[in-house]
Every structure is written in C-alpha cells, then in structure tokens.
C-alpha cells in the first residue's frame, strides 16, 4: 500500500475538510488531491506529491513525506523545475523566482519559466528563441519515498484511523 493510500485510509472522505484559499495557495505546484483534516487538535494539510503522500501542520510550516517524515526540500524540485541553479529566490509554493533582477514564474502547463508578461525566459542568451529540450531525471529519493518503511516511530499522522 502506498503512503498516499495510507493517508486516505486514515482520513476517509467524511474526515476530509475543504481547503481555504490560503491553504490552496500553499499546496506545492506538483501536488494533487489535496485536503485538510484535523489531527491532534491541529488542522493539517495533506496532498499527493507525484506518487507519495505529503503533509504539513498548516500554512507556513514545512511539507514532509508521510512515509518517513522527511522534509520536502527545494533541492528535490530540481528534477521538476529546470534551471533552479540559475534563478534566485525560488518559492516552490508560489512557483516564482527572479532571473537577472526580473520576476519570473514557473509555467506548469509548458514546464518552462516565463516572465510575468508571459514571455518565455531564455537562459542560454537573451537572443535565443529556440526552446530547450531538457529531459528531467527523477531522483531515487523521490522514487523510493513512496515505498520507504519507517523503522522508528516519528511524530506523524497515525497509521490507522483508530489512533485519532
């Protein structure tokens, strides 16, 4: 059973709460099937990040994998968002950054950086007009996060609904 399936077992639809606008804006760009739920008197957010489940204890708190409680760090986005080494101030929640002092945003539909006026950012040179063909490589840590079996007990959402 995947970590996301465990989350859904722990929080069936009747325990899932609708996200507020602020919570929706805090869901990472590649996360899907997000919802909120009360856990130990805290409103937590849950989402599916590619295959594994992720969670956090509300807006402005770090996202963690449900399988091992490891923090979902910006460095793990390098396989999804190209040119992270060339941009500054990357915000993986808002999908924004700066490049040569100008605000840019990550377009998830086309998997490319765009200026706020929707023109494509060219990283090779300002006059380059051809699109770059870069194939992302998914790190092993993301592939394994869904199948990781935790040997120690972490402070994380319960394994069964009876622990709530």
Largest sheet: 4 strands, antiparallel
Number of helices: 3
Shape: elongated
- Could you tell me the strand content as a percent range? 25-35%
Number of strands: 8
Structural class assignment = alpha+beta
Strand order within the widest sheet?
A: 1-2-3-4
Rg, Cα atoms, Å: 18 Å
What count of domains describes the coordinates? 2
Rounded average pLDDT: 76
Helix and strand succession?
A: HHEEEEEEEEH
Could you estimate the helical fraction of the residues in percent? 10-25%
Flag low-confidence runs: 127-135, 146-155, 159-164
Distance between the amino and carboxyl termini: 20 Å
Describe this structure in words.
The protein has two domains: 3-74 and 140-163, no CATH class; 81-135, no CATH class. Helix content is 12%, strand content 25%. The chain has helices spanning 3-10, 21-26, 140-145; strands at 31-39, 42-49, 53-56, 64-65, 88-91, 96-99, 102-107, 112-115. It has a four-stranded antiparallel beta sheet. The longest helix is centred in the N-terminal third of the chain and has 8 residues, at 3-10. The radius of gyration is 18 Å and the shape is elongated. Residues 127-135, 146-155 and 159-164 have low confidence and may be disordered.
Brief characterization of the structure:
The chain is an alpha+beta fold and 164 residues long. It is built from three helices and eight strands.
What's the structural blueprint in terms of helices and strands?
Blueprint: H1 3-10, H2 21-26, E1 31-39, E2 42-49, E3 53-56, E4 64-65, E5 88-91, E6 96-99, E7 102-107, E8 112-115, H3 140-145
Antiparallel strand pairs: 1-2, 2-3, 3-4, 5-6, 6-7, 7-8
């Amino acid at each position: 059973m995947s970590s996301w399936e465990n989350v859904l077992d722990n929080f069936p639809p009747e325990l899932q709460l609708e996200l507020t606008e602020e919570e929706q804006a805090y869901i990472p760009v590649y996360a899907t099937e997000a919802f909120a739920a009360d856990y130990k008197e805290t409103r937590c957010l849950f989402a599916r990040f590619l295959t594994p489940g992720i969670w956090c204890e509300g807006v402005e708190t770090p996202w963690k994998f449900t399988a091992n409680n490891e923090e979902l760090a910006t460095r793990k986005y390098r396989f999804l968002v190209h040119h992270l080494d060339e941009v500054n101030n990357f915000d993986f929640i808002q999908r924004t950054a700066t490049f040569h002092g100008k605000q840019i945003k990550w377009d998830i539909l086309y998997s490319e950086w765009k200026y706020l006026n929707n023109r494509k950012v060219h990283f090779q040179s300002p006059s380059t007009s051809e699109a770059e063909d870069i194939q992302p490589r998914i790190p092993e840590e993301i592939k394994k996060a869904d199948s990781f079996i935790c040997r120690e007990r972490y402070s994380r959402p319960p394994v069964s609904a009876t622990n709530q």
